[in-house]
Amino acid sequence: MRALTAAPLLVIWAAVAAVVHGCALVAGIEPPDESPSKRHCVDGVKDADETDIDCGGKDCLACGGAACTLNADCQSGGCATGVCVEPSCSDGVFDGYESSLDCGDPRSFAVGCQLCQDGLHCFNGCNCQSGYCNPSTQACGGGTPNCDLCADGVQDGAETDRDCGGASVCPRCLTGQKCAVDTDCASGTCTPPTCG
User: Fold this and answer.
1) Quick one: how far is CA 128 from the chain centroid?
2) pTM of the shown model
3) Per-residue model confidence as pLDDT tens digits over 131-165
4) What's the angle, vertex CA 169, arms to CA 165 and CA 174, rounded to 5?
5) N or C terminus: fewer CB in 10 A for the chain?
6) Which of 16-42 are b and which e, b meaning 16 or more Cβ less than 10 Å from the residue's Cβ?
């Protein structure tokens, strides 16, 4: 059995820290720099020049909805009264779940965003008006729709949590994920709001 080195564990911790501490880690965006000078960005502590836990400042991922000092501290590019402005589909900034500037959020029907036109960047077909994202060029258009809402990395459609549950073909949710009824859960037990 191969022992894990520190580098993969650092990437795993960065993903956990990003979810737990509110720092946005969007599908298709590279993991944080793992150089020794940036390890403070994944230690679960507000340290160095971070403006919130493991985000903001000159080294870390930008904070989403967290405390800030400068516009550059925020994923949305906007800091107002010491708090990051939430990303929007009309702010002229590539942020949130967008795959291209102000379009491509696969939750478009719920958040009022437009899906991207042919030729614009995409991560999967759910970002595109055509429903097709070319996997080679990562551009919308030119093929048979390949949008899979159950694998787009966000809670959308009838899902009760990200890519699971609901009256859909998505997998059932795991323990601790959101649910509404027992059939949302792999365990068969929903104690709202989570699977048991």
Assistant:
1) 17
2) 0.53
3) 999 999 999 999 999 988 888 777 888 899 989 99
4) 30
5) N
6) ebbeebbbbbbeeeeebeeeeebbbbb
